[in-house]
Amino acid sequence: AQSVTQLGSHVSVSEGALVLLRCNYSSSVPPYLFWYVQYPNQGLQLLLKYTTGATLVKGINGFEAEFKKSETSFHLTKPSAHMSDAAEYFCAVSRVSGNTPLVFGKGTRLSVIA
Amino acid sequence: NAGVTQTPKFQVLKTGQSMTLQCAQDMNHNSMYWYRQDPGMGLRLIYYSASEGTTDKGEVPNGYNVSRLNKREFSLRLESAAPSQTSVYFCASSTDGTAYEQYFGPGTRLTVT
């Protein structure tokens, strides 16, 4: 069975500092991986996804993530945090084939301090 | 193109009351999902429908029923609401394919007193 672990339920960074949100997955087959963002009182929206090909994936709002198979990780980064990045971030995994739902991590709340 | 819409946005129920949460999508997606979100628990799948006419249980189906009315609509029913069902409910939809992403509605905030 697949699972996702997000290390740190809450991460706080200063404005302009590096953002690093950690995600590790467990999957018996190569997965597809996703990062979603949820702003207060809104639904989730897709930041980026890894399917095949290049392991460094770029998303919206300057975020990127790197798929590392050997480490079973898909950490989300952004070089310079902005106040508007404050939100909750969810990592999710799916199988490559089959019509099964995504499995989500428990989320990491990002706070940005001025 | 409205995407995924949910009604109502907010609801307060008394224990034992019933209600139906409505969800519709206009993206011609085959698959639809219902999640609940609770603090510290992430998103937990209640039910999903891989295609019109089919539904499957997710991680936390007890106390809920669903209906895939047609390709566009997927409703979630609470027959006898309990305080433990106080949560934010999200509907999502996705296309078929090898790298499907899910599109989420804005959510319904439900309080059961």
Helix/strand layout:
The complex is a heterodimer of chains A (114) and B (113).
Chain A: E1 3-7, E2 10-14, E3 19-26, E4 31-38, E5 44-50, E6 56-58, E7 64-68, E8 73-78, E9 87-95, E10 103-104, E11 108-113
Parallel strand pairs in A: 2-11
Antiparallel strand pairs in A: 1-3, 3-8, 4-5, 4-9, 6-7, 7-8, 9-10, 9-11
Chain B: E1 4-7, E2 10-13, E3 19-25, E4 31-38, E5 42-49, E6 56-57, E7 64-68, E8 74-78, E9 87-94, E10 103-104, E11 108-112
Parallel strand pairs in B: 2-11
Antiparallel strand pairs in B: 1-3, 3-8, 4-5, 4-9, 5-6, 7-8, 9-10, 9-11
Task: Provide key terms for this protein.
A: 114 residues; mainly beta; five-stranded antiparallel β-sheet; B: 113 residues; seven-stranded mixed β-sheet; globular
Descriptive notes:
The complex is a heterodimer of chains A (about 110) and B (about 110). Helices cover about 0% and strands about 55% of the residues of chain A. Chain A contains no helices and eleven strands. Chain A has strands at about 5, 10-15, 20-25, 30-40, 45-50, 55-60, 65-70, 75-80, 85-95, 105, 110-114. In chain A, strands 2, 4, 5, 9, 10 and 11 form a six-stranded mixed sheet that branches. A five-stranded antiparallel sheet of chain A has the order 1-3-8-7-6, with no helix packed on it. By secondary structure, chain B is an all-beta fold. In chain B, strand 9 (about 85-95) and strand 10 form a beta hairpin. The model of chain B has no long low-confidence stretch (mean pLDDT about 95). The interface of A and B includes residues 42 and 99 of A.
Question: Structural class, from helix and strand content of chain B?
Answer: mainly beta
Q: End-to-end span of chain B in angstroms?
A: 36 Å
As a whole number of angstroms, the C-alpha radius of gyration of chain A is 14 Å
- The counted number of beta strands of chain B is 11
* Helix/strand order of chain A: EEEEEEEEEEE
**Quantity of strands of chain A, as a count:** 11
| Mean pLDDT across all amino acids of chain A | 91
Order of helices and strands of chain B: EEEEEEEEEEE
Helix content of chain A: under 10%
- Indicate the radius of gyration of chain B in whole angstroms: 13 Å
The helical percent of chain B reads: under 10%
Based on Cα principal axes, name the global outline of chain B.
globular
Give the oligomeric state.
heterodimer
Envelope shape of chain A: globular
- Name the chain pair with the biggest interface and residue counts per chain: A-B, 24 and 25 residues
- Averaged pLDDT of chain B: 93
Largest sheet of chain A: 6 strands, mixed
Report how far the terminal alpha carbons of chain A are from each other.
41 Å
